[in-house]
Amino acid sequence: TPGGYVVGSVMTTNGLKKALLRTGRVREARSFYPFHYHFVNNATWDLLIIEGWFESSAAAIHEFRRHSPQIIVFYWCLDPLFPGLSSIASLDVDGYLTNSLEVAEELSKIAPSRFVPLAADVDEMAVTTPYNESGPYVYVGSALGVDTKRNLVQMLREAQNTSRGLELWGSGWRDVGPPDLLPSYRGLLPHGELANCYAKAGAVLGATMDGQREKGMVNNRVFEVLAAGRPLVQEAFPELEDLLKDAPSHNLVLWHKAGDVPRGAFVRNETATSYISKHHTYDARAADVLAHFDALRDHNGRTGALRVAILWNGAWTPQLQTTVAAAADRLQRLYRIFWVRVADVISQSVDLLHYDVIFAVGKRDSPSDICARSLVREWTLPRHLEQRRLWILVDDGDLDPGGVSCFPDRLPRNASQAYDAVVFAEESDRPLLIEEGFHPLQLQEGYGVAPFPPKTLDDDGDDAYDAVVLADARDITTPKGRARVVDAARRTQRADHRGLVAVVGESIMISAVSQLKRELGAVDMRLIGNDAIVQDGVLDRAARKCDMLIVPHSNESKGGDWAVAYAAAVAREGATVLITDPTNTRLHRLAAVTSNGVATLSDALSFGVTRALTLGRGASKATIISAEPSSITNGDVRFSINFEAFVTGRDGSWCLVSDRSGMLTCVLQRHLDLVLRVEAPPNCEPFNISFYVELKSNVYGDVLRRSDAVTVRVGGGETQEALPSYPRTEVLLWPFKPACPAS
Question: What pLDDT is stored for residue 7 in this prediction?
């Protein structure tokens, strides 16, 4: 890694990145890696290439697509077994790249695939060191996958037993490598030293992971060693021999069976470097990648988008159509949207586990809310992803929000345990949700209405209203509600003005309408359903011609959110919005925040999915069970941590923080324990240090949860002389030298 040690993925991505920039077509190319996505929203990206699978891949893809709607996403499959082609096929990508013809054929059943072998960065691998014929055999690679390379240990032992000997570089050899190879181990190879390491070699050993070999994948070591002009003793398989059939034979020695590692001198052919320069550079691979990009940019058949089910109560109200439905239309570029009624779930005609994300639309304890909170299985059926759930707590206009639960035999969970994020309409909802157990990062304020696009209007006298009163059908069922509407209508009754009372709602009580009509007298009144809101509908024509939109809703009104959002959206074209109750601060503030229309709501929904993908489950929690020993001078403190609804690596990292030194380190892999190697300051009285754990998101690094603190007393004890060693595959060992507290 940059500033660290040699990693194959970094060699691959850096080589391709530089080659793309050399094409003249690419203005900017940047490398991202897990937990480091700081520039994802700093530019509009055209192409994202994912090299290697990681647990937060889905979250990273979602964020690139959210910020760059036209982006093309490729997955470069260089390993068919990790985590497996079925998991790779579940990613939301537009196409695949792979260094296996067989895998390309398999993945092409999912999305367009192209065979793109690995290569060498010839400039990076250029060496000036003269060839040393008696130099050692060299192998650079991790021991962590040694069991997946069935012939590697045999080849290493053969090389170690030759007169030239063996130099072994990479991680994990002291922990899980065969003990008889430890005399040859030289440590971790610093970043930038791979070419120099190969230059000093008499020959380099190469082996391939079993799964990659079976699929005919040739790894980057083959090309890099030949580019450095050094002999390569490489485990043979048909696809490698076919791909390199024109390579200089003296530089490529094929290993077929035990005993094939040469014990004598090599005849080195100087043409290997020029061969790689001609046939296997990243410039050639960049051309292949851009050709695949060009083919898909104009003929894209993306199939892997997240499947989003909008779970609703079944009333197709004007409020729902112009808010959530309009926002869903805008989100079609990100997701595959499906509308699912609660009744469909009750009748078992729809299984909610076929969807990756659930948007539950409705008030607290509405059928959709209760249904979502009653779901117990959390793994989706088609691609075995952990389902995410959002609560859309906005005004959907449903006159009768009650109904039968999807799962009457289940007890719904607490909302903060069931939902990963909430989208709500107004700031006053926030403290109530936090009191229920939600974290502020899970809450997205957003509401808005999509009036139809501006158009040229004629002078139809029937639609030439000077003011429109937006009344809610739920409000006119009470005398107080009708009185507010009548008072608002009187504001329109001037000699030179004509007013319209628009009663909005799909379900309307006829008796309430009749009573309101009598009280309004000569003022025009229209019942406004979905057909009246659509372009050229009654409300659409009237609202676009009027000078004033009046909202007669008070704090105790049942509705009002939709009317204000609609009025604010229309006001962008010149009308004035009047909220008749000056004390209704909720509606006044809502009028300000919804001035951007339905974009406000659609952005909040997509960012709600962001939070669901990047912060684990809504009920995530970390607890420090113990920190042992609790008193130490010099030695190791082992932390035992319990996590709830949080998977390290997929959902984020967990970080250890001290009250004296701030953040100490973060753990990115779920299988690692943390041991703090403490060195107390000399000549210092014993003192206490508090530690706590933070859960950090996998993309943006913000903190979701913080554990309670534990205290460790440092200093004043016996110094421990012998410190234990730990397997690197099981323990993250972190040094800690706290300073003596100021007196």
Answer: 56
